[in-house]
Structures are given as structure tokens and as C-alpha cells.
Amino acid sequence: MARKKIALIGAGNIGGTLAHLAAKKELGDIVLFDVAEGLPQGKALDLSQCGPVEGFDAKVTGTNDYADIAGADVIIVTAGVARKPGMSRDDLLGINLKVMKSVGEGIAANAPDAFVICITNPLDAMVWALREFSGLPHNKVVGMAGVLDSARFATFLAWEFGVSVKDVNAFVLGGHGDTMVPVTSYTTVSGIPVDDLVKMGRSSKEAIDAIVQRTRSGGGEIVGLLKTGSAFYAPATSAIAMAEAYLGDQKRILPCAVHVDGKYGLDGLYVGVPVVIGANGAEEVIEIALDDEAKQNFQVSVDAVKELLVACKAIDGSL
Ligand code: TXD
Q: Which reaction equation describes what this protein catalyses (predicted)?
């Protein structure tokens, strides 16, 4: 069976890490695309030279020509600009919306059957715009945010409880912004709800509330430390888990930014919700019962995403 083809649009910090992870896991042959001359080609050559050491036969190539992504099975989009200290994700909208238009056209013309995972910020708006510009089916265009936000939440909880990260199943809903909704009532350690662990005296409400807040500002914390850009190891790792769920028809229930129409009281918005990811892409949105607080927080997050879409439409009248 011919190897799958993974196209990475954007060969920057996340793109290069995606390529390295995909090659090590031999998910398929990898094409790195970027508008910067030499960057994708240089990283592809460097990554290829990992092959003899790592023992992978995946071909890694770099290009500035969209024709080279033809027939891709999975496309992961990181093209655009990243945050610097003092910038919010929403500050990137003006520049990155134009980038999504060129990326969407490139995908439509060369790989319309791909499963597309968007990472570019502001994520909830960019994934919606990418779907509009590309014209691909809604179930084949998703956004990566919730897997990363849940991983940040799980890391902090594992540290707090002194347990293995393997046993923490964290749940984050909503947009990829300060309004995201870490849901403690659906977050467990080996099946034990976090709220019960607090009642058992293994943490406190104050400590858990502080972790919820640290999760919300998890991206900004790293931007502040790095000063030159934003997180890229965990974002790449999170997107690769989504790609594997698609390529392996794993039917995983993952928090992703997907097109929600009818459930959660939404009528056609991209926002972070639990979704089954399998060979048909986003196969089923799982509508969970939210307590009043989570419901209110989710609505705040939905309203914030809607404001971003208004801003997008004001910039590009074709949306
Ligand atoms: O959870 C999430 N979704 C977020 C997303 C987590 C972390 C980072 N988040 C966002 O991903 C971040 O705010 C950025 O918008 C993207 C990519 O972050 P990365 O750290 O990889 O940015 P880089 O290193 O600047 O790489 C971006 C590349 C760079 O090489 C540019 O030359 C290229 O994008 N670029 C383009 N490629 C193709 N087409 C166009 N038009 C283009 N413009 C820039």
C-alpha cells in the first residue's frame, strides 16, 4: 500500500516540529510548504538526514509551490504570524485572515479530498475562514486547540495531585482564547472526578481555580517566557494526535474546533466541542450536559468567537 501523504502548510516552529513527529511516526511522506524561499527545503533536507539515525523511510520534501501538495491525505495549516509578548491571539486576525485565503485556494486547487487541521490563530476564526475559502466539506476541516488546552490543563492537574499524566483526562470546551472553558466536572484522574478529589482533601477549590486560570493563559505564559514567539512542541503534538485519529480511523472523542450546527444551541459556528474523529473526519459532535456555570462560560466563549467572525467579514466581504 502506497504511503499516505501529509502536507504541512507553514514550515515554521510548529510546521518543523510537525514534520519531525510525522516522520518519526512514519505517518506518511511529508511535504513542507512555505512562502519563505529555502525554509521548507532546508528543514526537509535536515529532517531527511534524521532518517538513517531514527530508521524512518518517510520522504520529507520542501516546496514553495502548492502543486506539490497534490493528493495530500492530511493537511496541517500553521501558515501566518505568531504572537509576540503584549499581543493577543486576536491581534493576528488581520494578517492571518489574508494568509488563510491563499492557503484555502491552494488546498481547493490541489488537495480537495484532504482532512485539514488548522492551527493558525486566532484559531476559531481562522478555521472557519479556511473552510469558507477552501470550500471543503465541513467535516473535513477542523481546528486544533482543545487537545492542546486540555493537555495544559492535564499537566497542571497532574503536578497538583502528584499523579501520572497518563491518568488525567482533562476536558476543555469553547474557543481557544481567554474565554476557554476547562470543565472540572468532566475532568478525572483514573475516573475520579476532580471535584471528588478536592472533597477527599487532595487539593483545594482555590488551587483548582488557579489551575483553570493558568490553563486559560497557558499560551501567553509561554509567549512571555520565549519572547520571540509562541508554543510549538505541544501544539504540534496535539495536531499529530488528531491526524492519527483520522488516518487510523480511531473514532477518538477529542476536543476540537469543529462546525457545530444544531447542537449546543449553535447554528453553524466553529467552536471547541467534543467530537468523534475517524476516517470521515469530524464524524459526530458529542453534546454533553453542562452545569449552569459551564453553560454560561461556554456562551461567553461562543460570543467571543462570533465577534471574531464579524471582524473577518468586515475585512473580507466575500466571507
Ligand atoms: O493552539 C493553537 N491553535 C495555537 C496556534 C498554538 C500555538 C501557536 N498558534 C499559532 O500557530 C500561532 O499564533 C501562529 O498563527 C501559527 C503558527 O505558529 P508558529 O510558531 O509555527 O509560527 P512561525 O514559526 O512564525 O511559522 C509560521 C510560518 C512561517 O514560516 C511563515 O513564513 C509562514 O508561516 N507563512 C506562510 N506560509 C504559507 N503561506 C503564507 N501566506 C504564509 N505567510 C507566512
A: (S)-malate + NAD(+) = oxaloacetate + NADH + H(+)
